[in-house]
Amino acid sequence: MKQEKKDQVELFKLIFTLNWEDPEMDRMALKIRPGDTMMTITSGGCNTLSFLLQDPSIIYTVDINPSQSYVIELKITAMKYLEYQEFIGFIGLSPIDDRLSIYNRFRYKMSEGAVKFWDYNSEIIRKGFLINGRYETFVKLVSRFVRLFEGNRRVNDLFNDRSPEDQKVFSQKEWDTGRTRFIFNAFFNKFILARRGLKADYFTFDDGSNTFAESFFKRFRKVIMDVPVKGNYFLHLYLKGCYKSLQEVPDYLKEGNFQTIKDRLDRIKIVTMDAQNWLPQMPSDSLDCFALSNICELMSMEDTLKLFKEVIRTARPESHICFRNLIIPREVPEELGDKIIKDIELTNKIFNTDRSFVYSKVAAYKLNK
Ligand SMILES: C[S@@+](CC[C@H](N)C(=O)[O-])C[C@H]1O[C@@H](n2cnc3c(N)ncnc32)[C@H](O)[C@@H]1O
Question: Distance (Å, rounded) from C-alpha 182 to C-alpha 323?
Fold first, then answer.
């Protein structure tokens, strides 16, 4: 399959089969109301699917990379045509025989592009595709390395139930160590990250760090000390390469939510486009929630300004925005500051409770229109 590049985004490569952004933070920022019209960035599709629980009328899930659209299309189609146990087996959350024959039962229900893509990537389907994009493969490698150096016992111990105070003491003693810093230095250097899809040469960090490794170590330290480990499926993925249990998974993978989400799948509209080109096609005053991921980091400042001008045009009054930075500091351009207002208190709360922890910023804004 042909592969192209547009700036820092590799097209047609399957980068994410999961969302690595904590949807609870988006929920806090977006204050989704029943009947809302949402725009999300697709990535692995988990968050888009889980937002259906808030009962929006439409979710436009936008991604510049067609393979990300094919990921969510596969998840949606599998949810539509399978029952829960078979669904979690098919995607790879639990063991099941012969995933390819399950795929063959519903593949013809997907778009021509998705069928071509998944037929070509049938080996990923056979293995269970859920934790098998490029980024997830990298994370599994990191987790193996962590367990090798830290030892399984220490890693498992981190996930034992503790009070917040005990968690702090334990994490400081067992994890705030030279050995853990070494692991971060080994994996989060720019050469390795560049091979995993982050193409920019980043030299400055929001938090004053001088290197990726230093900055990521600070974020890791913060999450293990200050955010409850219980229920933090991101931390479990990074350290163990899998989910801990069927209870500690994104909402759309929980049995109790399955039917509600299944009934609402038709509300998701998959858009394969650059968000900068898609928003200008949307009518004015047509969207209530904007979950922008960290796409602004992948744009120039001029394009960031254009994007937020389009957000203002397409937003309904009382709209909300959530956006992140992973590394490059990006902010709503100053000249739009009277129209897009940052909720500082909520942003601080979000930043301090974010389970996905690798982001240097997760911020909440409200439209003033
Ligand atoms: C910005 S990346 C970051 C990964 C994300 N933080 C997560 O947790 O999955 C998320 C997605 O944004 C997509 N993307 C990047 N720039 C975009 C743009 N201008 N318009 C639409 N999608 C974009 C990428 O293809 C990728 O699938």
Answer: 31
